[in-house]
Structures are given as C-alpha cells and as structure tokens.
Amino acid sequence: MLRKVFAATFSRLLHRPRLLAALVALTAACLIAAALMLQSIDHLEPCPLCILQRYAFTLVALFAALAAVLPGRASAVSAALGAVAALAGAGVAAWHVRLQLFPPEQSSCGPSLQYLLTNLPLGRALPRIFQGYGDCTQVDWTFLKLSMPAWALLWLIALGGVLLLAAWRITPRTQPRMRSTHQPV
Description:
By secondary structure, this protein is an all-alpha fold. It contains six helices and two strands; from the N terminus they run αααααββα. The chain has helices at residues 2-14, 17-41, 48-69, 72-101, 113-119, 148-170, and strands at residues 142-143, 146-147. Strands 1-2 form a two-stranded antiparallel ribbon. The longest helix is centred in the middle third of the chain and has 30 residues, at 72-101. It is elongated, with a radius of gyration of 21 Å.
C-alpha cells in the first residue's frame, strides 16, 4: 500500500518540474542550515573545501528557486545551471572525501581560504559564516559511517540529477511539422 502511494506521488512529481525545482531549493537550503547548525552546536570548524561545498549548495538553492518561478526557457536554463553548480560541488566533495580517505603526509586543502579571499574581488563581500580554517583531512563528524563531505557528495549528485530532470521536463518540445497531403497543382 505504502509503495503504491509513494509511486503515485513520485509519478505526479515527475509531471510538475517547477515543483521539483522548488523542492530542490528547499532541500539545499535545509542542508545549508543543518551544516550551520552543526557548526554552531558541535563547534565544528569548516575547512576551505567545506566552504566551497556550501557555495555549491547555495548556488543550487538559488538556481532551483529561480527555475521554480521563472517562465519557459529561463526556468530550464536556471535548472541546468543549478545542475552544473551541483556537479562542481560534487567534484569538490569527491576531492574532499579522497583527502579524508587518503590523507597526504602534510595536511593541505590547496591554497588557504585567506589567500583566496584576499586575491578574489568578491572576497570582501563574503559573510563570516563562510570562512573556515578547519583541517580538510580530519573526519570530525559521521552519520551512518559517512563523513559530512561524503553526504554532501551524495546530496549534490541527487539534487543535480533532479534539476537535470526538471530542466528536461521544463524545456518546451517543438512538435514536428506535419507535411501537407495536398499536392500543388
């Protein structure tokens, strides 16, 4: 019974791509809030790669929200851009998981966040909550034996896939032209 209800609900969602995009935006925003809550409650200091993953989730949420409200092709483009942001974030998360599984002898996540903020024009505008100084190789938190970057990787892949599906469903399909059966005389 529950399986039929779930299947029917999922089937209805597939035919409402804007609702899918809105759910992706809500999910991404909730995941960012959860990360900030864990940072505050458990006193976890995010590393530079964690910050980049937060940016990816923020972009996914932004583009998904735009896909939910914009008309026509703009909605599909926004959903596709959200999927690209998810893919980029998944790449960062995959690298982060790799660093945690196979830590280098000297801990390094690449250029320091301070270096990046100093040398990027947007660096002065970034809020304090997106600054991090933690160690990228250290696993500070796990749930079901997966670290936070591993969960971020799974969520970013899932959200990106849903946004690709939404972009495909939103894209207007052109009907093939019917050939006239009348022969010119």
